[in-house]
């Protein structure tokens, strides 16, 4: 029997890395199925044998597409960009592309990993909030300064790029961890513009198949 | 006065992220100058006003090239790949490129950030070794499993790629933190092949302009 040709996204509604990919899929108008991996239920469904065989990192997102399974959100987005180039999420100019990747990596390597679920578990309940706030403010201090020179309407110039796919989910995490965004006017302004876009709206954590009823909007 | 056209790499001999970029520069035969940023001296030279203006993340590496300054090692490597494509560090086939980026991101987002200097400072001296070992073994467990299906002589097939530029420096960190590599035969084998290559040799932490005499080899 032939496999379904529709991509399958292994996703958790609240995972900021899953949201990055959901935005890319929405922007590029790629039809897909969601398989929800609940990171807290049953001790964490990402630890099931079945899911580990799919993504040994035991993390979401993972995308089954074109006969392969890709883990790591930015690797997935770069693959989508190379195989479904319209609309583009990386500018044409190599220097602008470098700026987009710098901002993306700053968030994906410099902020998010330090405040993700598994690290916060290790840090212990009483220290979690301070730890997460410290990781985010330290990254946002740098990001605000960088965006002041790269941003137009969005993170790099006036077109939505991979950097924006990282920004909005990270700001949502900042909200969850009660980070004061007053010192970050550029970040806040761009985030507001992004949330007004259809692709960011439909992919939002409060509108996913696995969003619990009490968190739906 | 015209600026020097030679790229300037802001680097620290022991930084695994700096080493990734040094390997790329060596492989692509790009002549560059090193400005050493000592991450421990003077309370950390990355915190100087001068360096912060250059890279607000206060991290190495940063590369001044073609009139711009790029932070984040993978963004730098992707820029070098796009502007100096020979020899290639990403395969032609998009699926193989996805594998290379997945492995690179697994290390760059999933392992290294959790065991870098600033996080270990936060964790406190008595917990540092256990914390770093846990981050590395957890990532290597996944990586070993992934490489068993992607690797040839190197991480993805038989050509050196960006993934290998991440692997060797991460294994060096594992050594520093006394991680037992016995459970990782594929990682160990690839690392051995990589260290035998000229570009990995000349860029090694023990052979940099800022390597202290007692650590030189």
TrEMBL record, chains A, B:
Pathway(s) served: Amino-acid degradation; L-phenylalanine degradation; acetoacetate and fumarate from L-phenylalanine: step 5/6
The entry lists its GO molecular-function terms as: glutathione transferase activity; maleylacetoacetate isomerase activity
Q: Gene Ontology cellular component?
A: mitochondrion
What positions does the domain GST N-terminal occupy? Answer: 5-88
Q: Which CDD domains match?
A: GST_C_Zeta, GST_N_Zeta
This enzyme's EC code(s): 2.5.1.18, 5.2.1.2
Q: What is its main location?
A: cytoplasm
Which cell locations does it reside in?
A: Cytoplasm
Kindly indicate whether the keyword Membrane belongs to this entry: no
List the GO biological process terms.
glutathione metabolic process; L-phenylalanine catabolic process; L-tyrosine catabolic process
The UniProt keyword set, sorted, is: Cytoplasm, Isomerase, Phenylalanine catabolism, Transferase, Tyrosine catabolism
Reactions it catalyzes: RX + glutathione = an S-substituted glutathione + a halide anion + H(+); 4-maleylacetoacetate = 4-fumarylacetoacetate
Q: Which residues form the GST C-terminal domain?
A: 93-213
Cofactor dependence is on:
glutathione
Q: Which family does it belong to?
A: Belongs to the GST superfamily. Zeta family.
NCBIfam families, per the entry: maiA
Q: What is this protein called?
A: Maleylacetoacetate isomerase
- Tell me the name of the encoding gene: GSTZ1
């Amino acid at each position: 029997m032939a496999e379904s040709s529709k991509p399958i996204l292994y996703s958790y509604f609240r995972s900021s890395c899953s949201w990055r990919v959901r935005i890319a899929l929405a922007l590029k108008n790629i039809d897909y199925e969601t398989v929800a991996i609940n990171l807290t239920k049953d001790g964490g469904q990402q630890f099931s044998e079945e899911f580990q065989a799919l993504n040994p990192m035991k993390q979401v997102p993972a995308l089954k597409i074109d006969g392969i399974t890709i883990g790591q959100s930015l690797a997935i987005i770069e693959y989508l960009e190379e195989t479904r180039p319209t609309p583009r999420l990386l500018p044409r100019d190599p220097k602008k592309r470098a700026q987009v990747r710098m901002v993306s990596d700053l968030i994906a390597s410099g902020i998010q990993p330090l405040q993700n679920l598994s690290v916060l578990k290790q840090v212990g309940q009483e220290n979690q909030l301070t730890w997460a706030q410290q990781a985010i403010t330290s990254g946002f201090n740098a990001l605000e300064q960088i965006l002041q020179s790269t941003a137009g309407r969005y993170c790099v110039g006036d077109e939505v790029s991979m950097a924006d796919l990282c920004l909005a989910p990270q700001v949502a995490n900042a909200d969850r961890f009660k980070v004061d965004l007053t010192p970050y006017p550029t970040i806040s302004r761009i985030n507001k513009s992004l949330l007004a876009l259809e692709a960011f709206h439909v992919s939002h954590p409060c509108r996913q198949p696995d969003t619990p009823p009490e968190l739906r909007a």
